[in-house]
Amino acid sequence: MSEKILHTNSHFPWFIRALPDGRRAISAGLDFTLRLWDLETGEELRAFRGHTSVVWSVTLLPDGLRVLSSSADGTWRLWNISNGLEIRRFESHSGFDLSVHALWDGRRALSSGASRAFLMWDLRTGNELCRFEGHSQNVTSIASLYDQRHVLSGSKDRTLRLWKLDTGKEIHRFEGHRDEVTSVAVLPDDRALSGSKDLTVRLWSLETGKELHRFEGHTDDITSVALFSDGRRAISGSKDRTLRLWNLVSGTEIQTFVGHSKEVRSISVLPKENGVLSVSGDDTLRKWDIDITRETTGESLTYTTVRIALLGDSGVGKTGLGWRIAHGGFRDQPSSHGQQFFWLINELSLLRDDGTQCEAILWDMAGQSDYRLVHALFLDQVDLGLLLFDPANRERPLSGVEYWIRNLRSATNRYNASQPSSVITQQSASPMLLVAARVDRGTPSLSDSDIGEFCDRNGISHYIATSASEDIGIGTLLENIRASIPWERLTPTTTTRTFKRVKDHLLTLKNSLDQHSILLHPTELRRQLKKSDQNWDFTDVEMMAAVGHLANHGYVIKLRLANGNDAVLLAPDLLANLASSIVLEARRHERGLGSLDETLLLRGSYSLPELANVDKDEGAALLDATVALFLRSNLCFREAVADRTMLVFPSLINQKGPPSLSSMLVEDVSYHVIGAVENAYPALVVQLGYTNLFRRNHHWQNQAQYEFGPGELCTFRQTGEQEGEVEFVLSYSASTDEDTRNLFQGAFERFLRQRKVQIVRYPAITCRGAHRQKRANIRDAIDKGRSTFFCDECGEKISTPRGVTMGQPIGSNNGVLNQAEILAGRRTDYEVAVAWMKAFLRDERRTSGRPLCFLSYSWGDAEHERWVERLAEHLENADVSVLFDRWHNTPGTSIARFIERISTSDFVCAVGTPDYRLKDQLGDDDPVVQAELRLIKTKLRSRDEIRDTIIPILRRGNQKESFPSLFLDSVFIDFRIENEFFLRLFDLVLAVHRVPFENEMVRKHRVALSASQ
Questions:
Q1: Where do runs of H (alpha helix) occur along 660-787?
Q2: Whether 135 contacts 161, CB under 8 Å
Q3: DSSP code of 96?
Q4: How far from 354 is each of 299, 348, 491, 494, 499, CA to CA, in Å?
Q5: What share of the chain is helix, strand, coil (3-state, %, to 5)?
Q6: Phi and psi for 101 in degrees, rounded to 5?
Q7: φ and ψ at residue 231, rounded to 5 degrees
């Protein structure tokens, strides 16, 4: 390997692209310029100046004479390479394009930026030609296929998607990455490469959607990937400061390139394909020569892991059977409500002909219906389902089996083509075996023909009768498991020797697990590994990267503690068990509200069996991780009740709506939903409440109500629940206008489409006699294919409409709905950040109670008053006691008492608007106004530590026109940009709780809130 360094000094390069002649390259930089380089001499040949902000990306046009650049200044610019002159300038319709890609005809280009859609443009006119919509977060990278008819995109939503270029229609969705996809590249033979922040590079078949190979080795985010046209090699660059060269045929790592002192930002393969260019945060451009005869480093190995799950109702003997499979003996096991055990099944291990080491792990997942809320979170990691049932059950022998079949069909599967969420087929399901357990305990209630018919109907390959205690059918079951796993089709993963050694050590620890030490800290893990081999040289980042990959395969869980340190949870089943116990505790709420006191939960005040024998600090870490899991999955939301903050689980609420409710509402469209439906209802309740469109004002058992404007009520309810399928019905108050209904329906459908389900939409129908038709009649006519049906009220003959299998949601307000969906995602990130903050305050042993914050603002503007009340609600949910006139200075209360409370406030948040400054200038006669202004001015004139208790919040206007003069030298929090609301809200919460902004976890959460789309 040889290396040439081109010093770029003040250029701060961000992106690099080699020219077709192989002798020159163009870089884009943070200094607003493009630069042309001579790769032989390192000389800068030319600078392209004109952009007024960072240049993120460049793309060469097919003629090799022109280059197109995209910038944060909101423009693209077309340049003449030979003289550096700007040919044409285009205004970006999205305003901020991170990536631009010229198509083969030289007349069109694709762009992606701060948006979940990417666009195709006419380079002659600047007009938009096509919009590609479907990603749920920002599109980060795009590449066109060699067939000139399709385009591939990668996104922060962790997916790749294949689109038809002329129509913008989504063809395939590729799922598997566990973090943001940062870069994609394509080969002429319909294969593609992707890099991700999950530290993996993945090779895909674009024809089948199958993941062909996975490469591990990088220890930080992968920033860029590139392919060699011979189809044999690929290269990746990373924030870990290295480039890695991969052999796509053998699946091995060929070479690691070390030299950059900071992150690698972009790479480009030279046309002759014996060299690679890279640019880095160390402000250098480097050219690396590649030894094309070299095949492997010899430091990598290839493995794959299949995940098998024992599934079925409670009490059918799953855990006993699992123990028999794993250990070859019998041990009576108690019924559990969690994911009780994890076993490595050595008898199923094998070595494939291509050198891939194959392993099988077995999970036991509980079957009680209350806990399916939790277990559904883990089903997308299952490769083979063992569906257990009690054959002696006379009433419902196959109870629960249908549920697991539905969910397995909906779960992502590693070796089947990915489908859009609206297309779930039997063929795309994980393989399943039907297993009768405990056949020694009674006479079967089903005949062989009944079971055979059930298996045929549900695509189940084999049926096996077993008894764990008597060792009946266990050998046959193992043979069928082995035969059901498509070992040759499992995606192989290339990884480092460090990974193998770390895995072996952690498995040894798991087998001798002491329940008093379930968390392993990195320093202790390193000490143990070094003790095993003093000559073993590895870094902490390599070790923790290996732990992260083990976590992806279910061996362990990698936790981030409240203090910012990492820890390894050796018993991943414990987290699922704990989550299930928390669900059970919420179910026990004395008023049937399905909720828990968050503060008491984080303090460990609830009696949870999983924490009984666990160290207090370790138990606190598990509680933090579980609460974050619930919030991130939208299974619960926070609600302030007096001075308590409750975690409310919508699916656990037992209170029914008032009898008068149905008479107030008019039913509208309904949806029949099949698949992983257990978490659909709570997620919909939470996400709709997280938008800025509707205010959730009531929730009951299986029903939630939202308010758009005064008197405009929008409701949805879940009904007709069966195993693996539900029905949702939207209803509205009579005063809700059509635009509001369309908006609510559009938002509902957008969030519903995020689930792994099939969706059929049934319209509401009113006959000419104004009689609203029953949903059951409409659905029956549609499902049975009848062309007409009759009104029950007047007998009118009605033409049967079509049920619509949902692809895209309805609605013409796409811009509004896009922003609402983005805002809901940011709210989720914010709630997770607040959960961390509460854990941080607990660990800091802060016992002074909730700080009291008075909200000072101008009133008289209804929209502004609603905004301030929304702010007050958020602060209450973040453990801040809020003194707010609309809550505490209502008619009949003591004004003197309210004024006294103002003077005792720990903080004052002054919401700045032009009207707020006017209130100060006019010197209002209202005694409350006088009291608050007097308090604020006194504190602002005091010493700095008291002055800091006044927090200016700029809502409208600018600092000079919205605050009294005493504020002008104060640092304010800027709430003027709605898209930044939750970032600024987090800043405000941190300030009130006096959490230092320099804390590492604060920085991480602020970055997440800044980047989330």
A1: 661-664, 680-690, 738-752, 775-783
A2: yes
A3: -
A4: 17, 17, 12, 12, 19
A5: 30, 30, 40
A6: -145, 115
A7: 75, 5
User: DSSP secondary-structure letter at 431?
Assistant: P
Which amino acid appears at position 411 of this protein?
A
Kind plus residue range of the DSSP H or E element containing 863:
helix 862-877
CA atoms within 13 A on the CB side of 759: 26
Antiparallel, parallel or unpaired: β 300-311 and 384-389: parallel
d(CA 552, CA 305) in angstroms, rounded, equals 10
In the chain, the amino acid numbered 434 is L
Please report whether residue 441 resides in a domain.
yes
**Tally: H helices and E strands in the chain:** 25, 56
Spatial contact of 388 and 311, defined as CB atoms under 8 Å apart: yes
Give the list of residues 6+ apart from residue 792 with CB closer than 8 angstroms, or none.
771, 773, 774, 777
Give 404's Cβ-side CA count (13 Å radius): 30
Domain check: are 312 and 290 in the same one? no
CATH of the domain at 318: 3.40.50.300
Under a CB-based contact definition with an 8 Å cutoff, are residues 244 and 218 in contact? yes
Cα separation of 220 and 239, whole Å? 5
Q: Are residues 88 and 216 in the same domain?
A: yes
Q: How many residues does the chain have?
A: 1013
DSSP 260: -
CA–CA distance, 68 with 66 (Å, rounded to integer): 7
Domain CATH number, residue 197: 2.130.10.10
Q: Which of 752, 769, 577 is nearest to 669 (CA)?
A: 752
Neighbours of 195 (CB within 10 A): 30
Alpha carbons 104 and 148: distance in angstroms, whole number:
7
> Could you tell me if residue 498 is inside a domain?
no
Three-state helix/strand/coil letters over 489-549: HCCCEEEEHHHHHHHHHHHHHHHCCCCCCCEECHHHHHHHHHHHCCCCCCCHHHHHHHHHH
Give the model's confidence band at 422: pLDDT under 50 very low, under 70 low, under 90 confident, else very high: very low
46 and 181 fall within a common domain? yes
Q: Are 364 and 315 in contact (CB under 8 A)?
A: no
pLDDT reported for residue 811: 46
**Residue 642 host element (H or E):** none
Domain count, the chain: 5
Same domain assignment for residues 315 and 224: no
**Digit-coded pLDDT (tens) for 20-76:** 888 899 999 888 999 999 988 888 899 999 998 888 889 999 988 999 998 888 888
Contact call for residues 264 and 223 (beta carbons, < 8 A): yes
CATH of the domain at 731: 3.30.310.220
Instruction: Provide the residue range defining the domain that includes 432.
Output: 301-491
The two three-digit tokens of residue 135, written as one number: 């990603």
Cα separation, 331 vs 540, whole angstroms: 40
State pLDDT tens for residues 243-253. 999 999 888 89
Query: Environment class of residue 41 by beta-carbon count within 10 Å: exposed (0-12), middle (13-18) or buried (19+)?
Result: exposed
| Token code pair at residue 520 | 């392993």
Residue type, 570: L
Assigned domain for 244 exists: yes
The CA distances from residue 848 to 844, 851, 882, in Å, are: 11, 8, 16
Are 370 and 672 within 8 A, CB to CB?
no
**What is the full DSSP assignment across 401-415?**
HHHHHHHHHHS--TT
Tell me the C-alpha distance between 50 and 79, whole Å. Answer: 10
Same domain, 293 and 312: no
Q: What is the largest CA-CA distance in the chain?
A: 89
**Claim to verify: residue 293 and residue 349 sit in the same structural domain:** no
Distance of CA 961 to the CA centre of its chain: 41
In a domain, 999, yes or no: no
Q: For 346-387, what is each residue's pLDDT tens digit?
A: 889 999 988 899 989 888 765 556 666 777 676 666 788 899
Q: Contact, 245 vs 254, CB < 8 A?
A: yes
> Do residues 194 and 305 both lie within one domain?
no
Q: What is the DSSP letter of 651?
A: G
